[in-house]
Q: What sequence folds into this?
């Protein structure tokens, strides 16, 4: 049990009458057609986002969603009660500088996330000591505690899985929730694609927002760069680079791909963890989903029927159109070389093996 004394965080906790606080302003009732004054009706339910896991990644996501004004209520859930309460208070103390958002926090998944429009799941990142299978079993065990509670309290919500290995955990969340696959999404290669855009933008002297480029497939070392799809201002980039750089061959492309998939490891090696980039990536996904933007993101989705020659129910990253109902469509015509198709099928087989071993 923590010995830290719980301080009051609101005037009501200090003993003030909670019902008297709004008396500074007199309510202005609406006028009925018969001249009588009728009370104002409560507004429609506001947008609620729940972030499960208040670690470095979870808090970067919550902070970015907060500052971008994407939610009216943010629920923070974590197994460490003192930590998550401290994070809540730290954000609440910044209320004067931010859009008005209700922030709640605690350890009770069902109670806190109830009525969520979007539930974002971040469980502890991989540890060097654990094998891949041990890490998977540990994280799936956490999902067994979290996902059914979210599904019970928020049966119409969208689930966004951020933790790694994200493809297998997105599959696990889909199975444990009972939701349609369109409402379960993994963050997938969205951030990998952003890293690719960043590298190309720096080389070409343009803004990263002006580069269209996608990484697809398995999140991790097996991710593929769709070189044929890279565009800047509608112009194909690959043919330009090959014409202007005598050394821009297949080996060079592979070097860029390795640099992209190794980007997270470099950041972790330098600062111990990743946080800000994934925070912005997930906030971008949240905006597309909650605001029904219909934007295309490379995210982990149920890929059955979209991977040539593979019919397994696995989650892989493919360009997907996202909106308020979740995944509205998946790119059906990807230009892949024979080697790329083989790599994609191999990734699907590997992921399917993990899913089967977990008994899901």
A:
């Amino acid at each position: 049990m923590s010995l830290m004394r719980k301080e009051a965080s609101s005037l009501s906790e200090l003993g003030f009458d909670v019902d008297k606080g709004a008396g500074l302003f007199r309510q202005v009732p609406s006028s009925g057609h018969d001249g009588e004054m009728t009370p104002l009706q409560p507004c429609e339910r506001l947008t609620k986002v729940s972030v499960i896991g208040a670690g470095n990644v979870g808090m970067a996501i919550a902070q970015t969603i907060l500052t971008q004004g994407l939610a009216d209520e943010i629920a923070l859930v974590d197994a460490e009660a003192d930590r998550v309460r401290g994070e809540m208070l730290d954000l609440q103390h910044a209320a004067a500088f931010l859009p008005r958002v209700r922030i709640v926090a605690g350890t009770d998944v069902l109670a806190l996330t109830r009525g969520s429009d979007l539930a974002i799941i971040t469980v502890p990142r991989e540890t060097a000591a654990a094998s891949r299978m041990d890490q998977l079993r540990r994280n799936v065990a956490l999902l067994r505690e979290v996902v059914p509670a979210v599904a019970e309290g928020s049966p119409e919500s969208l689930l966004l899985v951020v933790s790694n290995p994200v493809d297998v955990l997105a599959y696990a969340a889909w199975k444990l929730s009972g939701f349609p696959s369109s409402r379960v999404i993994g963050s997938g290669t969205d951030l990998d694609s952003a890293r690719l855009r960043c590298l190309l933008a720096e080389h070409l002297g343009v803004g990263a927002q002006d580069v269209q480029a996608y990484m697809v497939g398995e999140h991790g070392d097996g991710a593929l760069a769709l070189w044929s799809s890279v565009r800047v201002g509608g112009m194909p980039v690959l043919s330009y680079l090959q014409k202007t750089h005598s050394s821009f061959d297949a080996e060079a492309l592979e070097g860029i791909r390795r640099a992209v998939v190794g980007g997270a490891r470099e950041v972790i090696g330098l600062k111990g963890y990743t946080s800000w980039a994934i925070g912005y990536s997930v906030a971008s996904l949240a905006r597309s989903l909650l605001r029904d933007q219909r934007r295309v993101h490379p995210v982990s989705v149920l890929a059955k029927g979209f991977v040539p020659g593979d019919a397994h129910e696995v989650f892989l990253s493919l360009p997907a159109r996202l909106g308020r109902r979740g995944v509205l469509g998946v790119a059906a015509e990807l230009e892949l070389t024979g080697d790329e198709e083989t790599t994609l099928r191999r990734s699907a087989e590997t992921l399917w093996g993990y899913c089967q071993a977990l008994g899901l």
Q: What stands out?
A: The chain has eleven helices and 16 strands. The chain has a mean pLDDT of 87. The chain has two domains: 48-186, 189-358. Residues 48-186 form a domain with the Rossmann fold fold (CATH 3.40.50.720).
